[in-house]
Fold each of these.
Amino acid sequence: MGKTILVVDDSSSMRQVVSMALKGSGYDVIEACDGKDALSKLAGQRVHLVISDVNMPNMDGITFVKEMKKNPAYKFVPVIMLTTEGSDEKKKTGQEAGAKAWVVKPFQPQQMLAAVSRILL
């Protein structure tokens, strides 16, 4: 069984780039356009990893991660934040919310895939 990764980003082109890279490496991908959409798509789904943008409408990435972690089923799901935000302050907030890694856009798909395989090993 392949591992399933939830990709959350309000930019459809960004979701496409991330999804293509992940699918090319054999992962199954669920896409969501913001935190609210992501929470509704999680419902009962087995997810091995979440890759989320930080700045999104309706519900930003950090709020989404905090909400997701409140659910016992997703408490231990690792999260990679994929964002244009490189500030230490934002990273700290992300880590406190439960993010395991921080990949700054623009990024190389290889760089993201390396972070993914490191976390999923």
Amino acid sequence: MDNIARTQKQLGSIVRRYRKHKGMSQGTLGSKSSLRQATISSIENGESDASLTTMMDILAALDLELVVRPRSKGSDTKIEDIF
């Protein structure tokens, strides 16, 4: 299933969801991506201005990839409002 993230908070929610789906703690994901647990927490809460390199390391640790495409014209509803 594809996930769309248009904000830092939405991307953090996706990271959290996949991390939990894989049964990882924040500390484990941090270790796999050479980051501190506090950094993972900050990203998952949408509170971090993480670099692209950091985000790519996290996505790789979760066995995910980044896909860039034109923005869809769908609803402006925030993903957090759906769940």
Amino acid sequence: MSDGRWAYWNAGLAPLLGAAGVALAAVAAHRVSDTQLATASQFLIVHAAAALALTAFGAGGERRTGFLAAASLMIFAVSLFSGDLVVRAFTGERLFPFAAPTGGSLLILSWVVAAFWGLRGAFSARGRG
């Protein structure tokens, strides 16, 4: 898949996560008082914005596929993490064992990947002014 198409996938999916986060915030505030829903909502909104920013940067003129990879990993990870919390809040069951911790660990990894590519670019650009 080309970087441009990859960026469009991220740019299409991340706002859906943000919308889900806002909807969950409304449910948590007005219908179901559950801290898991509030946590899932916050994670979805914050990581949707971060994934959009990483995607925008990754779709820049230079090849910056590391940022697109970090954004894609972030989208997957926050879906897994928040999805497990939502399923637990509504059904008492889990998506699968360790789904939320796996999603959370992948979220941390996605931030580390983004930091790596940012710092790599900063250090490789030192001599270019």
Amino acid sequence: KIQKPDLSRDDDRFNPRNRIYVRAVKGLHQLLRQRIGFLGMLAFMALPWINFNGQQAVLFDLIGQKYNIFGLTLWPQDFTILAFIFMLAAFALFLVTTFYGRVWCG
């Protein structure tokens, strides 16, 4: 029998009898989460062994500060420009959805 803890008493909250039991979650979204997680881990483990144009497809050379991703070579200063482009794209998305969303909805 699962006992509900008495929250009015502050001194009883560390009693081992007042445990939280996690129930098993089942359903479509749980199955999707597990499958996508499995595919992500598989990709994470398989990417270093994939060759692209005679070189390793994904190579992070931390000592040389060079990152090769499928033939594209990125240097540390490229990530600053990439982050700036992503921020501009996010602000453009917010701006466009704000104005065109108001026009579309009336």
